[in-house]
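Per your request, structure below.
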């Protein structure tokens, strides 16, 4: 079944006419009704859905819960050739087809990623028959509705906890809350809007939105509220949100009564693949990001893929910055995996590193790849730039520094740029940053124990490296600061 044909039949007019007469919002409403009707009436059909069907969150939820979804992707050049002579595509009006396709890809890739159970890439040399064969093979390989996945995180001394990954995984929260807990403090932000049930008496504590939550006065206020509520050392904390909330809640849990259990329900891509895993938590002070904190391993982590459906596109792109980092830490072609598999792969990589080095005394420092410049950009922008977007630029900067030190060649730098761009991320920061101030801030980074320390690629792979040449560091900033 062709969803576009269903839309035109129900509306009694062509899609270009719907756009011209009523606009895109009206078209998307008709499209949603058509999708709901088709999925309900024909549960065993193969439905060809238009590329914009994933724009609406309700459509993404329907697709995730009622269908196996194959994302048929192709390079913009391939798509442009297939669209030659098709003047009826309203969203491709104005500008060159390549530029319009590139803009649509940047807007939509995150949503394709959250929906797809499998990804098929049609290349320039494929005819229709070979592409159809690829899609059939992908459908044959699908296991049906993905089951909840469990990835263990093992810590030195026999400690371990589970990371549950899947759609609506938060329904399993009560399984991870320690059995002795009589009360649970749920720490979240108003903008999150995700409700949870820890299975015992609980109260929701709302903290400021954004990075403003990661402040020492917020920590003190939460501890005071816990005490007034009567929380004891036997009780627990549950964080619901992204990396900001897990950082804050983890530090509060590490501090209140000198430590109570914490479970993270991560609702952002950045949190699911990085911030909620491994036990690092902390808050900011004016002198730098995360300079006050602790290591507090959670009792468990939930990565709810369904919670990503309503994540703002900018927040999802921020998570892509950390995905790009894992590409260089052994993740391979993560951009060709369905989202659940991407999250699981990143969790496994981080779990392996944390198992070797819980408190960042050695190998764990590689998880900070791209973070030295990223933290400096965040602080200099007043945290207006998102962490993952800053990490993406930091990855390219780290490659530029490594190249100038003779550790990698120009091809390796180009590969860093290619990977970052493939995740739909900017490869340059704004030109408004002062290079001297950025270099000065490198010395305040947490890794800076004896001089300025970077995590850099090289002959032995990615590792911490002391860099004393400040002129080199300033020179390497030129390609990553906009003109």
């Amino acid at each position: 079944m062709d969803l576009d044909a269903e839309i035109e039949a129900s509306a009694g007019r062509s899609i270009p006419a719907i756009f011209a007469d009523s606009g895109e919002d009206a078209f998307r409403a008709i499209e949603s009704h058509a999708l709901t009707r088709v999925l309900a009436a024909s549960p065993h059909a193969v439905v060809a859905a238009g590329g914009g069907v994933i724009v609406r969150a309700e459509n993404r939820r329907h697709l995730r819960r009622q269908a196996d979804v194959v994302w048929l992707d192709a390079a913009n050049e391939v798509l442009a050739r297939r669209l030659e002579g098709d003047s009826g595509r309203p969203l491709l009006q104005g500008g060159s087809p390549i530029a319009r396709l590139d803009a649509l890809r940047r807007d939509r890739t995150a949503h394709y990623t959250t929906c797809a159970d499998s990804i098929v890439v049609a290349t320039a040399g494929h005819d229709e028959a070979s592409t159809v064969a690829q899609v059939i093979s992908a459908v044959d390989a699908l296991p049906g509705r993905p089951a909840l996945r469990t990835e263990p995180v093992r810590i030195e001394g026999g400690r371990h906890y589970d990371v549950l990954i899947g759609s609506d995984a938060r329904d399993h929260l009560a399984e991870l809350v320690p059995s002795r807990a009589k009360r649970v403090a749920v720490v979240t932000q108003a903008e999150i809007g995700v409700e949870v049930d820890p299975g015992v008496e609980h109260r929701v504590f709302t903290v400021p939105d954004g990075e403003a939550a990661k402040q020492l006065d917020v920590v003190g206020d939460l501890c005071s509220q816990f005490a007034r509520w009567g929380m004891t050392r036997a009780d627990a904390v549950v964080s619901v949100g992204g990396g900001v909330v897990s950082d804050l809640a983890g530090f509060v849990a590490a501090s209140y009564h000198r430590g109570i259990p914490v479970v993270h329900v991560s609702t952002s891509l950045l949190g699911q693949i990085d911030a909620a895993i491994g036990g690092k938590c902390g808050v900011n002070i004016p002198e730098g990001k995360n300079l006050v904190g602790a290591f507090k391993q959670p009792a468990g982590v939930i990565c709810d893929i369904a919670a990503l459906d309503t994540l703002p596109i900018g927040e999802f792109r921020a998570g892509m910055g950390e995905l790009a980092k894992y590409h260089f830490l052994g993740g391979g072609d993560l951009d060709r995996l369905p989202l659940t598999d991407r999250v699981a792969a990143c969790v496994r990589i981080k779990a392996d590193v944390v198992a070797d080095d819980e408190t960042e005394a050695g190998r764990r420092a590689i998880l900070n790849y791209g973070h030295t410049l990223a933290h400096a950009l965040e602080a200099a922008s007043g945290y207006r730039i998102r962490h993952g977007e800053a990490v993406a630029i930091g990855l390219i900067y780290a490659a530029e520094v490594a190249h100038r030190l003779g550790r990698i060649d120009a091809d390796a730098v180009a590969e860093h740029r290619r990977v970052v761009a493939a995740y739909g991320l900017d490869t340059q920061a704004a030109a408004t940053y002062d290079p001297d101030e950025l270099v000065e801030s490198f010395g305040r980074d947490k890794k800076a124990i004896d001089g300025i320390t970077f995590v850099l690629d090289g002959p032995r792979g990615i590792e911490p490296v002391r860099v004393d040449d400040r002129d080199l560091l300033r020179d390497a900033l030129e390609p990553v600061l906009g003109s």
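The chain has a mean pLDDT of 88.

Regards,
D.
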